[in-house]
């Protein structure tokens, strides 16, 4: 049982703390139909507790959780959403100091809780998003807190199980599945007439009923695990800050008539995003803003008064009209949305959220210029509401991701007044410490695009795409972790992700490929990427703590693969589940599965397995298990020997996709280099053949990190110059984030493509760790096909600054190392210079 309060003057007896749910026979204006009750329904409930304070400077820190999701208000101000995503065997709680929001007299704590049914109990439109863990408990919550005065005396105990809480069952919200919202579950349809106005600020005229105690939080002492064992949120609270729509989009002539809020009209390519890498004053302002955001406690950011858009940004729609407006947020955004409405009883307002404009005339989306509203259209997920005629605020419960929002209004007999929707941006509090600039014009915007992409894919977990799935996949997450280290040095979300996958372990020994998720999925190779996460965290932190904690899980995964090995050569085959490798055109109708899988062992999967064995062997040795290390190294060598014998084609100068296939892929070659299967001149030959052959299935964005590492290891890093066109080409499409794959993409935001965050810091600026934990810094710029670069790189030892250029046949480099740190500067000739105690450096040589 966790300690829910660290306050030394805690008054709550944790034995009384309990989960509560809606009281019996409660409704707003009508009884919930019996056939809608039970576990197959998405249920919404409101909870509140009213307490009186004799002083205005009271102190209150609350710990709060709920199932499936909650949002907490204090005296009408939104404070926090949660709980932090977790697996089935724990439920996280958030800790928030709400003291600044308290007042003398009456105070109200209020929660809205939405409970999604488990996957096996879902019917019709009653589907929750895949990222939650379903249960049949319905909307339940728990909150612990003691309100104290300045002297530490108890003023009010607001804890569930001690204080009296009241509840209200919602009948206003229904749910509808949409074509593009399969992974995200059903979207909201709200009858505003049935909403309990003022439920989070007042108790007047609302039929509240006392909430029901469900079960105690504390164990009875006999070892039973009560539902939702509580543990503290392991990562910071997500930030919430004001955002705004910046312009209105031109509407196509064949569309319905448009209306306006009075915003400027959008121009093609227009964006309100601030590009990093600008002039000195701009960089100074950006750095200052980043420092303020990084130093701000998340709950402090959440409780700053939300700015409102200046009036008049309102529109009045006449009766019996069908009109539309399309708004541009300037960049892809994840935000809570709210809209003030009045009048227009019976009017239907439909909101469609979109990442881009696309041409759907062929039956599928064709995306080119993302803000071309005159030649393409918006389709996507959406919410809707029916106006009641009263003055109300419409707020979808979950945050939504979009760049553009289409609002379609269909009025009835009275005019409807709408205000421009307000936005509250949210996400993980990612600090951007590293930065880069160059005279090469494409460097700064691609860095900025990469940084924004990573930010949008970080919330309570890493996620593949914030618009379509919001699921934490292993291959994706491993890359996002690496990019986070390079940009911010923050490893807190990384450690949570490592634990999440460990918690997903199945009895057969496999990890789930996405977790948390209500619908388990297995992609065998993805479990191997989890092992890479452990080694990469060791390089970042210098600590083997994470690996030691998860050694048994590493053994379970590798033993599962060992059971799939053929006796004659040790190659694994018939993995089952989903043999996904990459999204490439040649495998599109096979869902990313190489053809070699059909004929037996796949070179790709076997080499990734061998690399995982090598990684585990290294970490086992480092953590004191030399015998296991030797076993894993032996198994890896056996696999590599078999691949060399059965799959090397001397004529082609490439490795086949498998012993019994003539398929050749870029993917097999990069792992042949990275595992050491080929090295030296052979590795150079393989990688040059890999890039020159036009008939090979090519690595897409998720494999570009591996491709660049193979070119680096083969000592042909300059060959990466041609690959940067994948990112440069995005600039002409007016994207603000990096899409899932370079062509025929589904999503416009997928952080496995944010490779520039790593590549620009580690190989353009050239700053990398010499040993795990950055026990020594190597500075070796390798992208000498550029003219110059300068910037700062975050390390656990401090910031490293680098500035280099190539001019008139001479390479020059200057910079600063953190005080007391060892540094090694490597010039293009290979000549090395050592600095033992940090400080400034300056070197040059002729090329």
Overview of this protein structure:
With 847 residues, the protein is an alpha+beta fold. It is built from 14 helices and 37 strands. Strands 12, 13, 17, 18, 19, 20, 21, 22, 23, 24, 25 and 26 form a twelve-stranded mixed sheet that branches. The longest helix has 22 residues, at 626-647. It is globular, with a radius of gyration of 28 Å. The N and C termini lie far apart (64 Å).
Total helices: the number is 14
User: Are there runs of 5+ residues with pLDDT below 50, and where?
Assistant: 1-12, 274-310
Indicate the mean pLDDT.
91
Outline type? globular
- The tally of beta strands, per DSSP, is 37
Main pleated sheet: 12 strands, mixed
SSE class: alpha+beta
Range of helix content: 10-25%
Radius of gyration equals 28 Å
For the terminal residues, how far apart are their CA atoms?
A: 64 Å
Fraction of residues in β-strands: 25-35%
